[in-house]
Amino acid sequence: MTTRSELRAQREEAIQATSAEQNNHPQHHIIFRLWGIICLILMLLSILLNSTLLNASFVKDEITNSSLESLMLNQINSSLTQYGISTSVLKKSDTDKLITQAVDQVYAGEKINLDLSTVVNSVNDSVNSQLAQYGLSTSMLPANGSSAITSNINSMVNSQLNTPEVTQVISEIKLAKGIANAVLVISLLSLIILIIKGIWQHHVLSSFSWICLIGGILYTGVLMAIHGIAIQVGQQQPDLSPFIVQVADAFQQRGFNYSLLTIGFGIVLFILQFGKRRWQERR
Q1: Residues annotated as region Disordered (predicted)?
Q2: How far is it, in rounded angstroms, from Cα 88 to Cα 217?
Q3: In the list 68, 108, 113, 255, which could disulfide-bond 243, CB 3.0-4.6 Å?
Q4: CA distance 206 to 140
């Protein structure tokens, strides 16, 4: 009959054998963890890009809450004044709608095609209120006059907005989306393969605790580097500098949230690894 001391000795031998097996290939584990760190950073960056700079909703929120909206409003107003339309006609709510249209179209890979009919309607109302003082109305004008004016204004403003730079941005957004999605899929599949391999070789906790911790720290460093570069670029463009700083701050802040989650998960894995060892020692 096996005694307690013999059972304890067998368990200790099993634990030592497992530890020895895991330490027999230190170089293999280093490569495993290094590849895991690279895949994790690439996955996090892809997710961050898809949720910020490559996301139409994020861009719309940033533009409508920045000084860039005033620049766009001035550009549209300067176009409208050529038709004698007062700059007071276009309000912030109208600008927000136009920005929503423009951003949605750009991120859908389409040229900007704004609908300025609401602006023209506002002009008609304004003109009617002034003509009413003389007993006149725009209804006395030819029926097709208003539609022709609307069409001309739309065509003129949209042609001024669809500059070669905007066309280039549309192409670059398409390309960036494709690259980000490809990197996301490849890095995610690679991490899944590493997890399965780590489970099979009985070192998933020890490896991925380091992968998440070091990967999260390096990812944070990458975010800070991107933020610093963006600030330097903004300083070279005074008109866009406030907007670039605003977007860079929002980008970094959201990225930091992912960093905290990743590092926190790594710490949890370390705790689980420690608890597993303690449990094995007490068996």
Answers
A1: 1-20
A2: 50
A3: 68
A4: 82
Cβ neighbors of 220 (< 8 A, separation 6 or more) are 255, 256, 259
Instruction: Indicate the length of the chain as a whole number.
Output: 283
Q: What pTM value is reported for the model?
A: 0.79
Query: Both ends of the chain: CA-CA distance in Å?
Result: 19
The Cβ of residue 96 has, within 10 Å, a number of other Cβ atoms equal to 15
pLDDT classification of 21: cutoffs 50, 70, 90: very low
SS (HEC) of the chain: CCCHHHHHHHHHHHHHHHHHHHHCCHHHHHHHHHHHHHHHHHHHHHHHHHHCCCCHHHHHHHHHCCCHHHHHHHHHHHHHHHHCCCCCCCCHHHHHHHHHHHHHHHHCCCCCCCCCHHHHHHHHHHHHHHHHHHCCCHHHCCCCHHHHHHHHHHHHHHHHHCCHHHHHHHHHHHHHHHHHHHHHHHHHHHHHHHHHHHHHCCCHHHHHHHHHHHHHHHHHHHHHHHHHHHHHHHHCCCCCHHHHHHHHHHHHHHHHHHHHHHHHHHHHHHHHHHHHHHHHHHC
Written as six digits, the tokens of 213 are: 């911790």
pLDDT-derived band at 238, boundaries 50, 70, 90: confident
